[in-house]
Specification:
Shape: globular
Number of domains: 1
Low-confidence stretches: none
Number of strands: 2
Strand content: under 5%
CATH class: Mainly Alpha
Order of helices and strands: HHHHEEHHHHHHHHHH
CATH topology: Farnesyl Diphosphate Synthase
Structural class: mainly alpha
Distance between the termini: 25 Å
Mean pLDDT: 90
CATH architecture: Orthogonal Bundle
Length: 301
């Protein structure tokens, strides 16, 4: 049965657990990031300004959820913060005038608007670098795990995946893309980091190869679904609800799932992906990730 027509409310446990993860992650920002007072003050202000902007924290929550499923006592918070640092760097750079030229992100001025373009570029660079500093510092005591984590995150954010997806997205502006081109962009620009977040949590938690493979498959489904819902929201929502400028895809003539297939088919495909993700969780005994698949499919921002 399609989860879109499953009318049960989100379990209270899911909402509470997500809130707990977010609180843990944001507290870890305070303890793991350089303070604003560290010299040079301006770069650390800009890094923290963008990182502390209110967000869903889905990617770092996935690190914690995947690790927790396997009851390993290792601390996954440094890895979760590393993922969010890297994700925030991509947002800062996506918003720059040379890329999307966005004035708003997460309901407030983007980094280059709040500071300046040069500071925003350096803040993004610093957050990218800091992600790997965190992994090398906090998992050095378990060198094999540390190397695995660095490998997974660096592969996901490479020119063949996250950056490659962004590059093809830029190259695809002002022309109609084929479906396989659009899939390449979204699998790499959006889904790769979501998959990596889950894989990193599974590595820290000590999952078996089979369990890790299943959790990565779940990540592919919610990653693609996440981007399709983003396309839908850009076409149907408003700036106040979304917390960022809307209509940018249409204004720049970008190819999106909505542009290629229309709203109805896009919603249908997003729900099919969420349903598949939900079903994968049956074999993993992960009720939080089940509910997350529904939550992401129904989100409004």
């Amino acid at each position: 049965m399609s989860i879109l027509h499953n009318n049960r409310a989100f379990r209270m446990e899911f909402k509470e657990k997500l809130s707990t993860y977010v609180a843990e992650i944001e507290q870890a920002f305070e303890t793991l990031l350089p303070p604003e007072s560290a010299r040079p003050v301006r770069i650390h202000q800009a890094m923290r300004y963008s990182l502390f902007a209110e967000g869903k924290r889905i990617r770092p929550a996935l690190v914690l959820a995947a690790c927790e499923r396997f009851d390993n006592p290792r601390n996954a918070l440094p890895a979760a913060v590393a993922v969010e640092c890297l994700h925030t760097y991509t947002l800062i750079h996506d918003d720059l005038p040379a890329v999307d030229d966005s004035p708003l992100r997460r309901g407030r001025p983007t980094c280059h608007i709040q500071f300046d373009e040069a500071t925003a570029i350096l803040a993004g660079d610093a957050l990218l670098t800091y992600a790997f500093q965190l992994l090398s510092r906090h998992y050095a005591g378990s060198s094999d795990k540390g190397i695995e984590l660095i490998q997974v995150l660096s592969e996901a954010s490479s020119s063949e995946h996250l950056i490659g997806g962004q590059m093809e997205d830029i190259l695809g502006e002002q022309r109609v893309l084929e479906q396989d081109e659009l899939n390449f962009i979204h699998i790499n620009k959006t889904s790769a980091l979501i998959e990596a977040s889950l894989e990193m949590g599974a590595i820290i938690g000590g999952a078996t190869p089979e369990q890790t493979s299943s959790i990565i498959s779940y990540g592919r489904c919610i990653g693609l679904g996440f981007q399709i819902v983003d396309d839908i929201l850009d076409a149907t929502s408003d700036t106040q609800t979304l917390g960022k400028s809307v209509g940018a895809d249409e204004a720049s003539n970008k190819s999106t799932y909505v542009a290629l297939h229309g709203l109805e088919k896009s919603r249908q495909y997003a729900t099919e992906l969420a349903t598949k993700a939900y079903q994968i969780c049956d074999g993993l005994d992960m009720p939080f990730l089940k509910d997350l698949a529904i939550y992401l499919n129904r989100r409004t921002n």
